[in-house]
## 1
Amino acid sequence: QKEVEQDPGPLSVPEGAIVSLNCTYSNSAFQYFMWYRQYSRKGPELLMYTYSSGNKEDGRFTAQVDKSSKYISLFIRDSQPSDSATYLCAMSRSGGSNYKLTFGKGTLLTVNP
Amino acid sequence: KAGVTQTPRYLIKTRGQQVTLSCSPISGHRSVSWYQQTPGQGLQFLFEYFSETQRNKGNFPGRFSGRQFSNSRSEMNVSTLELGDSALYLCASSLLQGARLDEQYFGPGTRLTVT
């Protein structure tokens, strides 16, 4: 079993829809959870950074972590065409060890105007 | 403030050749990490350099190597290229080694195609 599983999609939604992106993981030692957005021909850009369980909101984006289920989600409200990108989840046991970051393979999202 | 820059952006090489990729971190950043991104394996950590020394290494063969210069710029070298080395190579910089994960910034990547 892969440490981090992420549905690759592709996911296509109309503008204004609520988008739900998800990752599951197997390593219960993961404590730090991140979501990155990667536009075509660009590097990943950090969207959300959370520690342990709970919710975190930033504008139209909400990250949820359920450690009991080993499941994390990213919700995008009122999705825009500019949200069209690949979304990567990532997680780590330590907050200061990028070499221990484990990434999902990414979900390709297209928001249609 | 300029972001992380990587050169070249695109590269086509033949099996058996070697390649050198370059990364210039954000001004003032001293830690540079390299990642390989492929559709099959996703994003995987290659190595991290800080103060011209390799600090951490991922699970890649010895054909993958790197170095860092005194101005914090870093190069990555892949020798005896294989078809499976075709990937997007990403560089990320942070102020210090072991910086918080939310203080790491990625460059645009170098797309390497091996034929």
## 2
Amino acid sequence: GQNIDQPTEMTATEGAIVQINCTYQTSGFNGLFWYQQHAGEAPTFLSYNVLDGLEEKGRFSSFLSRSKGYSYLLLKELQMKDSASYLCAPDQTGANNLFFGTGTRLTVIP
Amino acid sequence: DSGVTQTPKHLITATGQRVTLRCSPRSGDLSVYWYQQSLDQGLQFLIQYYNGEERAKGNILERFSAQQFPDLHSELNLSSLELGDSALYFCASSVDWTGRQGEQYFGPGTRLTVT
């Protein structure tokens, strides 16, 4: 089985940096996905980490520590359009589907 | 645009009725997944098909069923609808399994309202 823990809600100011944490427990682990979902819209892929460390992709970076069962998504230079839910999903070995947590709802304020 | 299409976009129906939601995966993708998302809830995995065969089942009610056709499009059938079935239903596709084979691409969803 899987267990995912993310903060339910976060608020940050436009132009700032925010870190969204995710801890997970899974039996067998391939990597970890992050998805962004605006309210009422489809989730969209942000990143997939397999190796430990930080991967940067423009304003968004994602970090993984396999030994600690921990990941975070770092959003820099926040924009109003970044207000959305951010879903972390561990990719479990042998599983045929992703298990998404309830996600973190980020609100960016002026 | 993810390349995954879903129809209809919106559906309003009454309790006790039956509806069919349709999904066409991205060209070349063999796996189709169905998810349910109720208001302010997370994505709940319902069922996965790969190349026409059921591969994984999640929290899918017995009143719900799905299938994937030879042309790889999929349909989700919801019957004896209840008010609690009102939700966004997403379809996603991927080349093969999740993980190293690539991420899932989500369709725009079908918003089902049961009155």
## 3
Amino acid sequence: DIQMTQSPSSLSASVGDRVTITCRGSQTINNYLNWYQQKPGKAPRLLVYAASSLQSGVPSRFSGSGSGTDFTLTISNLQPEDFATYYCHQSYRTPQTFGQGTKVEVK
Amino acid sequence: EVQLVESGGDLVQPGGSLRLSCAGSGFTFSNYWMHWVRQAPGEGLEWVSRINSDGSVTNYADSIEGRFTISRDNAKNTLYLQMRSLRAEDTAVYYCATGLKILAVAPFAYWGQGALVTVSS
């Protein structure tokens, strides 16, 4: 199975900050790397797919980058509605796997 | 509007069985791969299973292999997850999800609201 390791597991930030979350796969995933945002009691929301493509309707302050095994989600100019938990997800190989999540909290 | 609505979540005793359903609407259900993803209380997301458009291909997570069965009825636009020999560690919110893409590797652009399964005596 491909293990996805996210870091950090949590971070504290302020509105307006630039936030970076990383995700590393235990083997190459051919850029089939997706990012989701989840708020308490809600289903996850797709933000970025194929490592760097922004899902329709997602604000441009979200961006994804990376290739091979190392990937990054960046939130520039953090907004109040961005405090949430973020997950990476590889859809390249079965079983598909998620990172353990990164909780973005108010500083 | 694309909608996925899960049902069937309940409290069940260890060793028991339960079947979840996910009704799809607003899209051509029979065209796409469908998935189940679960989330234990306070924990992260875990991919559970997937099924291709006509039901001929299924895959499962190691943790539920042999106990859960995914299936679909395209005439009813409904996805199912039959769960047997349930354990306490199967307690979770179960989501159905799809990418509305032909490819199996499509990301999960659409999710249901989730169905809570609690396994406890």
